[in-house]
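User
Take a look at the entry that follows and flag anything odd:
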Amino acid sequence: MILKKRDKSLYLLKLESVMDRLSEKNPKYRLASSEFLKHQAGYRGEMAVDYYLSFLSMSEYHIFNGIRLKDSLGRFFQIDTLLVTPWYYLILEIKNIIGDLEFCYKQNQLIRTYEDKVDRMECPITQAKRQRAQLHDWLSKHNFPIMTIEYQVIIANNHARLINADKYVYEKVSRHSNIHNLTGSFEKKYSGKVFTDKDLKRLSKLILKQDTPLATSPLTQLKIEPFEIEKGVQCPSCKKIPMERARKFWFCRQCQFSSATAHIHVIRDYALLMGDTISNKELRSFLQLNSRSVAAKILTSQNLPILGTTRNRKYLLIKNNKLLIQASSNA
């Protein structure tokens, strides 16, 4: 049973908006693109793993994807996928990496060699082991049954190859296609049922309540100033900015495409990049729109929560790290 489904992270959504609105001529575009591709690859790897998770017994395996919790010392920890069964917990640290991979876990280092280029990064085995310690702390803090917490690094790319691996690495690193065999071996190893349905309901409710998505802005991370973000309505067809307002439609002079709802994606971009709230004036500036009344109609039509008085009115776009406005599917 999937108790928390896999969604794009808030940070990845923000990076997508940055890529739509940062000029390719900007010196920071290359760095932003690299950051975007890295997080996009991570998400695609996680989605590839979900296919193999679907073969597990949904009545016995309870799946929480992309959770971020805080331990007793106030330190956040993020788990790509947490499997909860009546017998054990399993942490999956998912890596979508290509190339030759050497896990130097004693030095907390993963060495990746690809096309004669060598990259060094934190060892995912060490990451998963640390997540296990923090999850144990969190479970103890909230008085949940302490079962064995297993952890596994899952390689989600068929073009990755383990090199110079010892027995410990082969025990802790698996390919995504091997998840069913992996969980089967744990089922044989842990046969005593510890977790009850009551425990599961309480765990699910608490995880979903305390899950705190990373709210970091890529503008801050990449040192991009707000004025470098291009304003205006982006054409859903050719991606050019800006479209022009013509009566009740947005019109693109580049490809002749017209849309009545293209502004919705712009408001979403504003929420992701500029702030959790928006005023009529701020909307007009970001849409490159002159009409106050049209801006008011646009905001009213979205049924967003309203903050403040009529004169200082703002509309809430993000609440509890969740977007309140979704991109239109028929732009």
Q: What stands out?
A: Residues 52 and 177 are 6 Å apart (CA to CA). The chain has a mean pLDDT of 93.
